[in-house]
Amino acid sequence: ERMVEIRQQNCNPMTMKVTYYKKPVFIHQGHMQWLWDVDGRRYLDLFAGVATVSVGHCHPKVTAAAEKQLRRLWHTTNIYVHPPLHEYCEKLASYFPDPLKVIYLTNSGSEANDLAMLMARLHTGNFDIITFRGSYHGGSPQTMGLTSNAAYKYPIANGLGCTNTMCPDVFRGPWGGSHCRDSPVQTIRECSCAQGHCMANDQYIGQLKETFDTSVPSRIAAFFAEPIQGVGGAVQYPKTYLKEAYKLVRERGGLCIADEVQTGFGRTGSHFWGFQGHDVIPDMVTMAKGIGNGYPMGAVVTTPEIAASFAKGVHFNTFGGNPVACAIASSVLDTIKEDGAQQISLNVGTYLMTELAKLRDKYEIIGDVRGKGLQIGVEMVKDKASRHPLPPEAMSEIFEDMKDMGVLIGKGGVYGQVMALAPCRSVLFSWRVVATLQATTSQVRFHT
Ligand code: PMP
């Protein structure tokens, strides 16, 4: 009865927020890239629970690892060490270059970013933090301050979702398009680079310098950047931007933090971590989502030196590093390797981007196709010349049509104008995706 009652409402029963769809979609089963609703309809899942189910829904190997651990031990406190914790931390550390070798386990991405903020402030003795326009770093009161996307903030006392003292400086950096990318497709916003010299890069670096001079002179604790903005709509930076930005931040005593909550675990295809695509080594890396293939977990990886500043206090987390989470996460790392998930990201991602670029060239309402590996954004616009975002009603039509055709996708971008594709890295039927997009875009064009 409760189910029937909820299904009649136009909302997500968990958060009571309106979903993308006219009616809630009730998912009750998943297998690899497929989801089934309570009526038995099958969907191709191209969003993977917001880029989270990294190797496939209920992947048999990961499920077996969870089952095994559930029969042995569910929980202890972090007063004790248990084999899954030990084994996992050693394994995860081996995926990082020196000196990133100290690991703290959390339950979510927001918690990981909260912890990273705290550690950066303790280590540097500074307070201010810089993030990007369009960024998303979490929904806890502290990380809501980091998140610059106003859609995820609440108008509460003294600011939007944060008090002024907690609110980091939001830096107006790269947004709305890609510039010098190493992706196989061109954007409509052509990069105005002369050979070997990127004008967009100069502009953004200039803005960063200005932010330092005007807002945070010599008091910076940290610079947070997603290697590719996820919720912001698969936004990429000019090629050398992060490297130059890291240098400026470090010159001013700040720490550089890579938020790999979406980009980590091989999602970008060419590298295991997004930061590796920028030729930088961060001082801290935060992660969640793909770490547990959908099981709640997060982590912060940092250096022994930064960890030492943090060790002055007592940090306690009841569930962080839970035995079941560690057993699952360990199996996820093995499965990524065995299934070639990073290679799948690269191959399928390159294919999808290439095919989507053909649609972009054909249709006036596809303004940009961008991203890397299987973190792809398709920006929908009124027309290519103005590049104004496609209105929310038209975006809703796309989501509705695609759902009716059996394909679930995500939404990104400051105006919700970006179709986000971030599927699990299991065997995908790319042709079906492209065909569906083709059909959907022509329908939407007709409507508008
Ligand atoms: N950072 C990024 C880049 C994210 O995309 C998200 C979630 N969308 C978070 C942090 C917050 O993670 P969580 O929802 O697990 O708290």
TrEMBL record:
UniProt subcellular location: Mitochondrion
GO process annotations (BP): glyoxylate catabolic process; L-alanine catabolic process, by transamination
PROSITE patterns cross-referenced by the UniProt entry: AA_TRANSFER_CLASS_3
InterPro entries: Aminotrans_3, Aminotrans_3_PPA_site, PyrdxlP-dep_Trfase, PyrdxlP-dep_Trfase_major, PyrdxlP-dep_Trfase_small
Cofactor requirement: pyridoxal 5'-phosphate
Domain of life of the organism encoding this protein: Eukaryota
GO cellular component: mitochondrion
Keywords from the named record: Aminotransferase, Mitochondrion, Pyridoxal phosphate, Transferase, Transit peptide
Gene Ontology MF terms: (R)-3-amino-2-methylpropionate-pyruvate transaminase activity; alanine-glyoxylate transaminase activity; beta-alanine:pyruvate transaminase activity; pyridoxal phosphate binding
EC numbers, comma separated: 2.6.1.18, 2.6.1.40, 2.6.1.44
One Pfam short name: Aminotran_3
Annotated catalysed reactions: N(omega),N(omega)-dimethyl-L-arginine + glyoxylate = 5-(3,3-dimethylguanidino)-2-oxopentanoate + glycine; N(omega),N(omega)-dimethyl-L-arginine + 2-oxobutanoate = 5-(3,3-dimethylguanidino)-2-oxopentanoate + (2S)-2-aminobutanoate; oxaloacetate + L-alanine = L-aspartate + pyruvate; glyoxylate + L-alanine = glycine + pyruvate
Entry keyword annotation includes Transferase: yes
Quaternary structure annotation from Swiss-Prot or TrEMBL: Homotetramer.
Function (record text): Multifunctional aminotransferase with a broad substrate specificity. Catalyzes the conversion of glyoxylate to glycine using alanine as the amino donor. Catalyzes metabolism of not L- but the D-isomer of D-beta-aminoisobutyric acid to generate 2-methyl-3-oxopropanoate and alanine. Catalyzes the transfer of the amino group from beta-alanine to pyruvate to yield L-alanine and 3-oxopropanoate. Can metabolize NG-monomethyl-L-arginine (NMMA), asymmetric NG,NG-dimethyl-L-arginine (ADMA) and symmetric NG,N'G-dimethyl-L-arginine (SDMA).
The family this protein is said to belong to: Belongs to the class-III pyridoxal-phosphate-dependent aminotransferase family.
Name of the molecule in the record: Alanine--glyoxylate aminotransferase 2, mitochondrial
Organism (species): Gasterosteus aculeatus aculeatus (three-spined stickleback)
Origin organism lineage: Eukaryota, Metazoa, Chordata, Craniata, Vertebrata
